[in-house]
Structure formats: C-alpha cells, structure tokens
Specification:
Layout (H helix, E strand, L loop, with lengths): L2 H17 L8 E3 H6 L4 E5 L2 E6 L2 E6 L4 E4 L2 E4 L5 E3 L2 E5 L3 H5 L16 E5 L6 H8 L3 H7 L12 E5 L2 E5 L6 H7 L4 H8 L11 E5 L40 E2 L5 E2 L3 E4 L5 E3 L4 E9 L3 E9 L2 E8 L1 E2 L8 E2 L4 E4 L17 E8 L6 E3 L2 H8 L2
Antiparallel strand pairs: 1-8, 2-3, 3-4, 4-5, 5-6, 7-8, 9-10, 11-12, 13-14, 15-23, 16-22, 17-18, 17-21, 18-19, 19-23, 20-22, 23-24
Bound molecules: zinc ion (ZN).
The site of zinc ion (ZN) has 4 residues, from loops.
C-alpha cells in the first residue's frame, strides 16, 4: 500500500467512526476499508463481498453471519450489515477472519505446505539451524534468499522437510525407492510434486527422511506464566519482525528506560486487543500519543501507544474482547496533543503489574513472541 492510500483510508475511517453514534449498535467498521488496510483486495458483488489476500479467498454476504475462508465456514458474532451505504463488520469479527492468512508480503513470514519456520534465538548460526533440521546450509540460504550468513534474533527462517537425494537408476520404480528409504510412494510424490508415477532414469528425487530419523526442532519460545491464550496485536504479514527493545534508553522527556517493546508497522494498520479486558485509560499522553490501557486481569494492564486513531466502540470503561479491533497503528506522541511523525509508525506495547496500585512495568517480549507463533 502506498502511504497516500493508507492515509486516505485512515481519513475515511475517522470520518466514518465520527459519524456513527458511539454506543448505538455493536461497534462495526466498513468491510472494504478494514480488509484493504490488511493488504487484501476487496470486490463487491452485491450481496457478496469477496476478499482476497495472496492465495486466500474469503467470502462475506450482507445479511449473513457466516463467512467462508477458503471454503471453510466461519461464524461471525453478528451478520454483515449495511450502514450509510457501506457493508460493515463487527469489530470483534475481523481478527478471526484475517489472522493466519497465507500469501503474505513479508518473505520471512511465508508459510509453505511442506515446510516449517524456525525463529532465530540468541546464539543460533546458519550451520546450527541446518544441522538441527537435517538439511544443507546452502538450501537454507536458498530457501530464504539469504545473501550472507548474518542472522538476527527473532528472524524467521523457512526450513523444508529434510530429504535424501536419490538419482533414479534403470529399473527403479517409486514403489522400490519407497521400500529402500522406508517411506511411502505418496510421500515421495508429494515432496517432488509428481502428478503421476512416471519417473525417468537420471532424475533426482527428494526422498523424505523417515519420521524417527528427523531431528526434533526444540521449542525455543517458552510458554509465558500467564495469558498463554492471548493474541498477537497484529495479524501476520502486516508488521515487521521485532526484537526485544525492552530496557533500551529513550531520551524524550529526559533519559529513561524503554518500558515496552516496539513493533513497526505501516500507519493505519489495524491493531487488535491481545486479551479480554476493560479500557481503563484512553486519550492523549505526551509520551504515548493516542494511547489505550486495557486492564486484562486483577494484576495486569496492557498498554498500546502511538495510535493513529481508535476503533469504533473504544472509550474509557468499554469492555473489549480478545481479538477485537481497537485502533490503528500510528506515529503519535512525543509532544502536545496531535503531535505526529516524530518517529516511524509503530505500536509501543507495554505490560504493567497494577495489582499494588502503582504501575510496575515488566518485559512483554516473551509474551509477544509466544502469541506471535500461535
Ligand atoms: Zn516504545
């Protein structure tokens, strides 16, 4: 999306949300705007709305509370309805449709049918990753279009299933090869995308490694102590890889330590509530710009900052649901009301222990990494 498009979309949402009475109906947003801002194409074929992103197709129907995503039905909390000439969708219904879409823009977020992703942890090397998955370093480089061996923590590498190269000899059949390598004809055909059983002498086949021989990738993201079922605040493909920026120094308003983690995304990208909760603060802060604090349980408040704007239905005291659209990524803050553009657009996400009355920050990074992989 070009920046100008994002800004004009944003302007139209803000106009739209301002025009809709705050509490009249379930908060909703125009289908076209919200899915376009999630990098999808939207086609209106009255009464059907087709939403495409990459290889995925979603179909919504005005008046219906059932949508389909690649042919699978998804129940919405309320039907798609018309408001001011636009088809609108409840702000709680966007995330379930939009998350885990394939055909993503970020190369590092690609998900392929037979592959897995490995998230780089401190100390990982390309050689180590290749060894763990039983594949060649050169292959990992090629699959990920790596130009050098530099890796960064949090980077996602695509790793195909390990295989044994087999050159077809006279007399070979898929059946014979499958016996030799303790696998199945089906597995060989799938791995090599063969449409028939025909193979030719000299052909190199990738024979899948039998299950017991596969190295088990270790789970490098540990389950957090709580909120294990919470959601990542952006849908995949709409934000950039992020690192642990907790505790970094920040100088606006005097030297201080960064009380959160920054996730870069384009201005106008939709943001979703990580948890159920209650909006306990709302409005402008000199540091945070347009910010939102959501009390998630008796001891914890989540903080979302630098928003371009709020979603309909967000106000102080509002109950929000996990996955509900709460606002749009922006670059507000570091000055008086309305200050924007002092830094690149991003979500500043914080977590605070508010059990004792005071706000005691803790590092949200392990939580975000866990939610991201769900
Ligand atoms: Zn920040």
């Amino acid at each position: 999306l070009k920046r100008i498009t994002v800004l004009s979309l944003l302007a139209s949402w803000l106009a739209f949300s301002a025009a809709v009475p705050a509490h009249a109906e379930t908060p909703a947003v125009p289908v076209r705007n919200i899915f376009q801002s999630l990098h999808a194409e939207v086609a209106w074929k009255d009464p059907v709305i087709e939403v495409r992103r990459g290889a995925d197709l979603m179909v919504l129907r005005v008046g219906s509370d059932v949508a389909t995503k690649n042919g699978t039905a998804i129940r919405l909390s309320e039907p798609i309805r018309m408001a001011k000439g636009a088809a609108v969708i409840a702000t709680v219904d966007v995330y379930p449709l939009a998350h885990n879409w394939s055909g993503l823009q970020n190369a590092s977020d690609r998900l392929r049918v037979s592959g897995r992703t490995h998230t780089i942890a401190k100390g990982d090397t390309l050689w180590g990753v290749a060894k763990r998955y039983g594949v060649a370093v050169a292959d990992v480089r090629e699959w990920n279009h790596l130009h050098d061996d530099a890796l960064y923590v949090g980077e996602k590498l695509y790793v195909e299933e390990p295989y044994i190269p087999h050159t077809v000899a006279p007399g070979d059949t898929l059946w014979r090869i499958s016996r030799e390598h303790h696998t199945t004809v089906h597995a060989i055909k799938t791995t090599n995308r063969l449409e028939s059983d025909n193979i030719y002498v000299g052909q190199t086949l990738r024979v899948p490694v039998p299950e017991p021989m596969k190295a088990q990738p270790r789970d490098i993201v540990e389950k957090p102590p709580k909120f294990e079922d919470a959601l990542f605040p952006f849908v995949n493909g709409t934000y950039q890889q992020f690192g642990d920026t907790w505790g970094e120094s920040r100088s606006f308003g005097g030297e201080r330590s960064h009380e959160g983690v920054d996730i870069m995304a384009e201005a106008g990208v939709p943001m979703f509530s990580a948890t159920d909760g209650t909006v306990v603060s709302y409005g402008w802060l000199p540091y945070g710009g347009w910010r939102l604090s959501v009390k998630a349980d008796n001891a914890t408040t989540l903080y979302y900052a630098h928003l371009a704007g709020y979603a309909p239905g967000i106000y102080k005291g509002a109950r929000v649901k996990k996955g509900q659209l709460i606002g749009y990524c922006g670059a507000t803050g570091y000055g008086p009301v309305g200050t924007t553009g002092k830094f690149d657009p991003h979500l500043h996400f914080g977590m605070y222990d508010t059990s004792g009355g005071a706000w005691k920050p803790f590092n949200p990074y392990p939580y975000l990494k866990w939610w991201e992989q769900r």
